[in-house]
Amino acid sequence: MKISIWNRHFETMPREQMKAVQSERLREVVERVYYNVPYYRAKMQEQGIGPEHIQSLDDLQKLPFTTKQDLRDNYPFGLFALPMSEIIRLHASSGTTGRPTVVGYSRRDIAVWSEVMARTLTAAGVSNKDFIQIAYGYGLFTGGLGLHYGGEKVGASVIPISGGNTRKQLQLMNDFGSTVLACTPSYASYLAEAIDESDIRREDLKLRVGIFGAEPWTDNMRKEIEKKLKIKAFDIYGLSEIIGPGVSFDCEYQNGLHINEDHFIPEIIDPETLEPLQEGELGELVFTTVTKEGLPIIRYRTRDLTRLHYETCKCGRTLVRMEKCTGRSDDMLIIRGVNLFPSQIESVLLEMDETTPHYLLVVDRINNLDTLELHVEVEDRFYQDKISELQNLGKKIKHQIESTIGLSVNVKLVEPKTIERSEGKAKRVIDKRTLK
Amino acid sequence: MIIEQLSVFLENRSGRLHEVFEILGKANINVSACSMADTSEFGILRLIPSDPAGAREILKNNLFSVNVSEVISFAAPNSPGALSKALKILADANIGIEYLYGFSPGDKSFIVLRPDDAQKAVEEFQKHEMELISASDLYKF
Fold first, then answer.
1. Sign of CA dihedral A163, A141, A152, A215
2. ipTM, 2 dp
């Protein structure tokens, strides 16, 4: 099998050489933030360090962390390292919990973004022969434009349809012969259902590859989508604070996501002690962007939990691989003192044949006791006339969940398609405790 | 003699039952018999429509979970002990009963019954010359 690699030089670079590249770029970025961003200078001075203390990759841990709160505190442009005349693009997060976080790109940053997205798409087998339907939102959200630049860079025919408008998605997918679909996994799942219910026949579509990310999803969900849409689904990972999509990507072996580490140096830390962890240990992912000009960011705490693996991949890439994120250090629910990630619930449901991946967790506090209620859709294909069988299904789900997460849960069976389908990020949890 | 019955999964939400009948009414589908079983969490509506395939299609299109099961229907005199006699036939033949529903409007009682083996139940009833009601008879009522 011929393996396509966009930038063989960097993507298959021997480890020692990569370390040298990273060390050199780290020195440069530290100088840039020290002299151009008062916030970083003050923070480094507080810790008694200057650019001269950062000579190589080994010195990375001397540097202070940056958090989302730091970005908010310096809203909107306080952490930018270039004058605004050099910033050609602004993106912002949705900011549901406060001020949005704003990110700025120089002309070169946009070029780097295109480069890392071209690597991402090439690894998924996308080329100038493809039609890529981009159903990520275009706008302040980085998803749409990130894919757009990558698609253009590899020379594919880009269809910038943006998110939503499902009827139009299906029409263009059919009429234009889209071969690649890029969107969130939950929207892909929604589109699969919409295709089933439409007059379009799957065999008339040319779709073969899915580029899915922007929300956590499990391997089981991948299999489910691949089966439903009859495509190969590739995971992508990114966050706007680092660059947007293109931070890391699946190759055809799908054995962890390759991080574009010549641009974004990863670390894994213990989220409690903030100490660095060893290769293979589960912890919080931290990035330092070494080539960014507009908004270089030092040791950014992503809150995403994962592990890193450094051995060379079967695809030939030496780029370090990160496992699919198993949860977020801040999305984690604490129910009666037990840590719970919604993705754990999802895995259990997907392992059972009788349920759809559509679920909603409702957390409440009644008489000072946390309660957990799980709404699961009763799909037509396993619905039974007998009450006893439905009750057994409820009990089976309850038992499986309880034995996996070690918490008691009330399972409520609901009618199909009554749990909200999102065209953006899926809402899986309603925590009523925080509303009181 | 076997009749197709639809059962529809319903959440306990007010207005949901009404919606089912409104959808069927608009599609000009008549319902000859129905029964509602409920638990604290959900309900199952069982009904015998004049057009089972059409009713199923339209309910599925309206996103209901629908299941088809085989039931039988029979008439018995509206007098003490008549139902007991009918049920004994099934009990003697070792045929289990999932559920039944019925009523007695005058001289006769009408029963819809879901046996665990519908074909065998029909045969036993025919052997004992019970008055079975076919699907086409039922729609005429």
1. negative
2. 0.74
